Amino acid sequence: MKNKIFLGAILSSFCALAFYMTSINHMKTQTLEIYGNSTAKVAQKSKMKEGTKQARITSGESEIGEAAISKNSNKSLAKTIVKSSSNVQGNYQVSVKDLNNPKIFADLTNTSQDNLNAGNVLKLFVLLAYYKAVQDKSLNSATPYKVKSSDLNGGDKVLKTDMAYSYTYLLDLMMRQQNNNAANIILNKIGKEKVNQTAKEFGAGNTEITDNFGKDFAGKTSSGDLVNTMQKLYQGKILGTSVDNQILGQLANFPEKGLAKNINGVVYRIADKKQGAAIIQEDGKTYTMAMVSEEDADLAKIGDSINNWMIKQK
Q1: Which domain holds residue 234?
Q2: Which GO terms describe its biological process (predicted)?
Q3: Regarding predicted confidence, which is higher, 96 or 31?
Q4: Which residues contact 212 (CB under 8 A, 6 or more apart)?
Q5: What is the pLDDT of residues 156-182, one digit of tens each?
Q6: Are 105 and 37 in contact, with CB atoms under 8 Å apart?
């Protein structure tokens, strides 16, 4: 009887050891997705070796779990962002860049996805594609557009069927009044494929518009694409200083302030209730920030935390 008990104990120990070794081998081959700044060296899908430190920070609140940060991101800034993002539900990305000091930036996310569903912020890329089409003369902005009944999804209080409107007016409706029918007229006149191609030409490789505006989402983008595009606009590297300043003028009048809702100073922005991008000039600081979330988020709270951190820097 004692021999049977002893033999059973040996078998149990052997099984436990085998399970432990299998678990260790599995852990060694796990991958960690790191969302990175395009100018930073990022450990993309790197194999985690035993004893290495994961480049992750936690918010201290289990609701959003962990956020992965890109290598060389400012950890103090990243922790500030994660703390203010603690109530965000679902997937999100946040990127920040100091436009006076390239060493100060942060990129973080709680998902391994390169891009996320997006809505109104994608009008930024329609805006860029419009000005590019006018610049290369593939679109004659002097020729009015005659509205068709099929252009007016769900009716429209401003646009009327069989009436002709200038593209300048349609652009103003898209940006200042967030008129989705006007946005879709411009989008489809240029063509979604052309708009997406233009976005990629300007470095927004994770951005794609797949549907008309009017629903929660019209395509996908990333916070990195938004921040890099805003940076290039500020630096006059999209279509040249003169045209880029016109685009910034449109962004200065966008009604939804998003991340910049409570921020003073000079602000260029585009946003809805889920996503936002902005360039901020305040107290001698100039920086750009963006957030992409697939659920409603308190963008103002996150923007305030970023702004407070930035203006405290020497």
Answers
A1: 78-311
A2: beta-lactam antibiotic catabolic process; response to antibiotic
A3: 96
A4: 153, 180, 184, 187, 188, 218
A5: 999 999 999 999 999 999 999 999 999
A6: yes
Sheet holding 92-98, edge to edge: 56-58, 66-69, 105-109, 92-98, 285-293, 275-282, 266-271
* Token pair in block for residue 210: 């797949």
Establish if 16 belongs to a structural domain.
no
What's the predicted TM-score (pTM) here?
A: 0.80
Mind listing the pLDDT tens digit for each residue in 121-153? 999 999 999 999 999 999 999 999 999 999 999
Q: Which two tokens stand for residue 195?
A: 């708009």
Encode pLDDT of 10-52 as tens digits: 444 444 444 444 443 433 333 333 333 333 333 333 322 222 2
Residue with tokens 């480049």: 55
SS3 category, 135:
helix
Inter-axis angle of helices 180-190 and 167-176, nearest 10: 130
Q: Is residue 98 part of a domain?
A: yes
Whether 57 maps to a domain, the answer reads no
Give the count of domains, the chain: 1
Q: What is the pLDDT of residue 224?
A: 97
Tell me which residue of 57, 68, 114, 65 sits closest to 90, measured CA to CA.
65
Helix/strand number for the chain, H first, E second: 9, 14
Q: What is the CATH number of the domain that holds 232?
A: 3.40.710.10
Task: Indicate the SS3 state at residue 66.
Answer: strand
Q: Give the mean model confidence (pLDDT) for residues 196-215.
A: 97
